[in-house]
Amino acid sequence: MTFTKLVSDLYEGLWQPEDVQISATASSTAVLRVMNERAVFAEVFRLGKASRPELAGITGLSKPTVAVALNNLEEAGLLRQVGLRAGPAGRSALLYEVRPEAGYVLAVDIGRKFVRTALADLVGDIVARKEEPSRGARNRDLVAQLTRLADELAGTAGITRADITLAVFGTPGIHDKANGSLHLAPNLPGWERRNSLARLGDITGATYVVENDADLAAVGEATYGLGRGVRHFVYVSIGTGMGMGIVIDGKLYRGFRGAAGEIGYLPVGDGDPLLDAPESRKRGMFESVASADAVVATSQRLGMTGAATAKDVLDAARAGDPAALRTVELEIDHLGRALAGVVAVLDPELVVLGGGVGGHAGDLLTGPLLDRLGDLVALHPPRIEVSTLGNDAVLLGALASGLTAARDLVLDRAAPATTR
């Protein structure tokens, strides 16, 4: 799977990394050369393959200037020649492309039950991927697991962990950059401690980014899913936890403290017996009554037996089980009230449902949710659709955003060589 086009879209402004700081390494006398090389590299990246005349026409740079930039980038190991393109009057022009092995991005989706990982080269081809049940009951166990997985992925690609340019970790909750911890992530015990996230940097030794998983899923949707070309939409994850990624005017919106979209804490579900549980305050009202665990607990309270997972309840509802059907009705009511608030405040064009529940219950949820919203909001409700990315939404967002930053990183690191 190639993400080159996706990355070029993101580079134009959707995802703006907060944790990766790209510093200028060129001297003042070489700033123009660096700018020229970045412009040429960006166009080769966007086009896939390009010739010197083509790049001169696109960038507005002279052919000699483009030739110097191409030579420097080739010497730095970032570009390579890949043949000739026939031109007018029998002339042929050398074609250049980005060297895929010039950089690698590790994407990690850290959930309570599963961890999903993928490794992509610099042009966005996934060279290895793996997922397995999470061993994250303790953060050191999870770090050990992720380190092993990174080793396995790198080995499959014929590289080492040291060759990874950037690692992007998608997690629940909020990354507190001041003390290096996670807030509002009760499903990941231990990560709320000061400097706990620094352990992630030890996995590859590379530059790393920690992003909210729902935000990354929204990036994935915006670049490869239902959100492509949609300027205002939200991605709502309904699973072990609850989260929402928000895209406003084509850009990811994080909020003042990075907490935008923490919808698990919406005051929805007042009066539900599940709110009497000791953990309800920590998890938030909405998450307590509408998450996957809540679906199972509600079905059991209504007399259903044998349901161990939310999928069991949903399957039983499809089969006509009365308790399961009533559980789904309550889920729709909770979701409808939460989405009514989202629609009233953000006015999205599209609501994308994902997560273990949202991504696998479209036939049970979307139609009734639209009807419910029609009763709750004054304006015509937005489209509600189930994500087409499934469990890969977070990984795809992490890869796409990571590739954007990795492109700058490899250019930044090569700058001393290209400005001699």
TrEMBL record:
It comes from the Bacteria. Keywords: Kinase, Transferase. Belongs to the ROK (NagC/XylR) family. The lineage of its organism: Bacteria, Bacillati, Actinomycetota, Actinomycetes, Micromonosporales. InterPro entries: ATPase_NBD, ROK, WH-like_DNA-bd_sf, WH_DNA-bd_sf. The keyword Nucleotidyltransferase does not apply. The keyword Nucleotide-binding does not apply. One of its GO terms (molecular function) is kinase activity. This is Putative NBD/HSP70 family sugar kinase.
